[in-house]
């Protein structure tokens, strides 16, 4: 038993190191001088480290700062709208036995398999008719359409696990159906809500295709699109690219560090409650 535990720990450590090496290399490259990036053999540790790339490409570039602000404006409303739509949808699919439930769930699963570009082009045509191209509202709607099927599928097992007896007791105490769900059911699915909110944030914060096709002006484009500008026809600005990439990664890393136990618990519990 002890040997098995040690083996699993070593395996987990190796996997973690493999995944963290690219992250370390990204941060290390962002702290190098431009000329040091192409040293052979490469410098494993920046010597000396410099913040020039952050000064020039992040805080000294208004387009990058605007991109970060645009991503924030897009991501937070998308997160809230996704939860506002996914929670009642998942609850309805879990509690009401309708003939179309299976079809709806199948469509939800199929929607997650569609390439984003296959959704972006029809959306561009539709949004053009309604003046939603190159607007935050258009990007929020597009990102919500991408995150919503995932959120519903992930939340439905939690809704199935809400004890019906507790809901009935709430109704007997004089609660309406909505109030019983709000006061009794919703707190029971909190791990699922945190998990879905976290993964929706990650999906939306890192989304690229919608930002590229539905946003045409610098003032609206998210940071993922702005990041692409550092990859030029005649060369890549590696230190600047890695500096901006590090800034983009910070919110995701912070959220996962703070909420990792909820995310892991949410995924594992959701997988066995259906």
TrEMBL record:
<keyword id="KW-1003">Cell membrane</keyword>
<comment type="similarity">
    <text>Belongs to the binding-protein-dependent transport system permease family.</text>
</comment>
<dbReference type="InterPro" id="IPR035906">
    <property type="entry name" value="MetI-like_sf"/>
</dbReference>
<dbReference type="InterPro" id="IPR050901">
    <property type="entry name" value="BP-dep_ABC_trans_perm"/>
</dbReference>
<keyword id="KW-1133">Transmembrane helix</keyword>
<feature type="transmembrane region" description="Helical">
    <location>
        <begin position="7"/>
        <end position="27"/>
    </location>
</feature>
<feature type="transmembrane region" description="Helical">
    <location>
        <begin position="68"/>
        <end position="91"/>
    </location>
</feature>
<protein>
    <submittedName>
        <fullName>Carbohydrate ABC transporter permease</fullName>
    </submittedName>
</protein>
<keyword id="KW-0812">Transmembrane</keyword>
<keyword id="KW-0813">Transport</keyword>
<feature type="transmembrane region" description="Helical">
    <location>
        <begin position="239"/>
        <end position="259"/>
    </location>
</feature>
<dbReference type="InterPro" id="IPR000515">
    <property type="entry name" value="MetI-like"/>
</dbReference>
<feature type="domain" description="ABC transmembrane type-1">
    <location>
        <begin position="68"/>
        <end position="259"/>
    </location>
</feature>
<dbReference type="Pfam" id="PF00528">
    <property type="entry name" value="BPD_transp_1"/>
</dbReference>
<feature type="transmembrane region" description="Helical">
    <location>
        <begin position="139"/>
        <end position="159"/>
    </location>
</feature>
<feature type="transmembrane region" description="Helical">
    <location>
        <begin position="103"/>
        <end position="127"/>
    </location>
</feature>
<feature type="transmembrane region" description="Helical">
    <location>
        <begin position="180"/>
        <end position="202"/>
    </location>
</feature>
<keyword id="KW-0472">Membrane</keyword>
């Amino acid at each position: 038993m002890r040997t098995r535990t040690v083996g699993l720990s070593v395996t987990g450590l190796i996997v973690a190191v493999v995944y963290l090496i690219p992250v370390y290399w990204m941060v290390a490259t962002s702290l190098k001088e431009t000329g040091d990036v192409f040293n052979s053999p490469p410098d494993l540790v920046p010597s000396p480290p410099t913040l020039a790339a952050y000064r020039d490409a992040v805080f000294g570039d208004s387009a990058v700062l605007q991109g970060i602000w645009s991503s924030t404006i897009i991501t937070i409303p998308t997160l809230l709208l996704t939860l506002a739509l996914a929670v009642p949808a998942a609850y309805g699919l879990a509690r009401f036995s309708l003939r179309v439930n299976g079809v709806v769930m199948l469509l939800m699963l199929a929607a997650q398999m569609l390439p984003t570009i296959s959704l972006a082009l029809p959306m561009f045509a539709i949004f053009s008719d309604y003046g939603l191209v190159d607007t935050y509202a258009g990007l929020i709607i597009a990102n919500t359409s991408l995150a919503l099927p995932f959120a519903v599928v992930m939340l439905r097992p939690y809704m199935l696990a809400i004890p019906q007896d507790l809901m009935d007791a709430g109704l007997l105490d004089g609660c309406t159906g909505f109030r019983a769900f709000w006061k009794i059911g919703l707190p029971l699915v909190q791990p699922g809500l945190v998990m879905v909110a976290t993964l929706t944030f990650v999906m939306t914060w890192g989304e690229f295709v919608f930002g590229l096709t539905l946003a045409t002006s610098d003032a609206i484009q998210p940071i993922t699109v702005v990041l692409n500008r550092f990859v030029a026809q005649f060369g890549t600005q590696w230190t600047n690219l890695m500096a901006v990439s590090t800034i983009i990664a910070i919110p995701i890393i912070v959220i996962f560090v703070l909420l990792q136990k909820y995310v892991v618990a949410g995924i594992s519990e959701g997988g066995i409650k259906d």
